[in-house]
Task: inverse folding
């Protein structure tokens, strides 16, 4: 073994970079990243094995030790040494971890190749998927559920919006921005502990709006269940037939299949933005004159400080 290289067991702390998994959760090392990160420290022959693995991970999972050696132009013992160099006990352990890495999705390991248009390969993908997401929302949304959500929000004492992760956190903030303009007491929360603490303070006539693309985010579901335990009402913006949808009183749901391009942001955001806009607008109509007066005050105190007579966006 060359100087400076540290070989670690796949079950040792060094192999896990000192990170302990939360209680009740088994840590599964990202072996693909480990192979890439280890590449500069590998011997030349081991690097050839790494190149073969990274070139086609699915094929590497299915290949025998002898087949990997043949593709890399090395001996079978070299393949075994490579597996140990990246922190595994041997070829079998390496292949198991490699298969576990593929659970996340082999799609991230390939190149995105949508059809080219306007000289930009992603042009139609982004616009087309945005249009499709909004069309699916219009087709799938239950108007009765939307009206029910608006009635509940319009009568609420206060609103807590829960969203965890990338898109859901931003959408929770967007929901707060849409609703406070009507004079509604609303706050967005994107930290799981704050969500639990907030849920613990809620009472009847309080409302939770929970946002989750998958409907499987455990922290959000638990916070909703806790809020309902204290007799708050729960509204969700999520995918249909999910744990979150089943945990809520009112369900604003839409399913939008993912477009197979990992570099393109998910079009589901457009669907959820449309749901949030519909929910906010329906609430404004329920509130009627009080919502218009609050919007007038907001616009007056913003517009009065700006020069010019151009009418700015009315709802912002």
Result:
């Amino acid at each position: 073994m060359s100087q400076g290289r540290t070989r670690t067991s796949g079950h040792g702390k060094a192999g896990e970079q000192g990170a302990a998994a939360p209680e009740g959760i088994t840590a599964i090392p990202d072996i693909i990243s480990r192979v890439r990160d280890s590449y500069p420290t590998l011997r030349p022959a081991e690097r050839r094995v790494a190149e073969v693995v990274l070139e086609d991970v699915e094929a590497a999972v299915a290949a025998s030790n002898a087949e990997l050696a043949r593709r890399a132009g090395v001996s079978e013992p070299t393949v075994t040494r490579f597996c140990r160099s990246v922190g595994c006990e041997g070829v079998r352990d390496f292949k198991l971890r490699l298969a576990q890495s593929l659970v996340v999705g082999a799609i991230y390991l390939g190149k995105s190749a949508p059809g080219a248009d306007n000289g930009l390969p992603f042009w139609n993908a982004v616009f087309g998927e945005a249009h499709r997401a909004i069309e699916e929302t219009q087709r799938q949304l239950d108007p009765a559920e939307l009206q029910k959500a608006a009635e509940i929000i319009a009568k609420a004492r206060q609103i807590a919006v829960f969203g965890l992760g990338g898109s859901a956190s931003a959408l929770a903030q967007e929901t707060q921005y849409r609703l406070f303009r009507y004079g509604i007491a609303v706050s967005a929360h994107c930290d799981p502990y704050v969500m639990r603490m907030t849920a613990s303070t809620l009472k009847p006539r309080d409302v939770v709006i929970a946002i989750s693309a998958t409907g499987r985010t455990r922290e959000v579901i638990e916070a909703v269940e806790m809020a309902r335990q204290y007799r708050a009402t729960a509204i969700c913006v999520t995918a249909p037939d999910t744990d979150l949808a089943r945990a809520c009183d009112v369900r604003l749901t839409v399913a939008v299949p993912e477009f197979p391009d990992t570099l393109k942001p998910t079009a589901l955001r457009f669907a959820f933005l449309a749901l949030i806009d519909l929910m906010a607008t329906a609430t404004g109509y329920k509130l009627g004159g009080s919502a218009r007066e609050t919007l007038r005050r907001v616009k007056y105190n913003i517009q009065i400080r700006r020069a010019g007579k151009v009418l700015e966006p009315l709802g912002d």
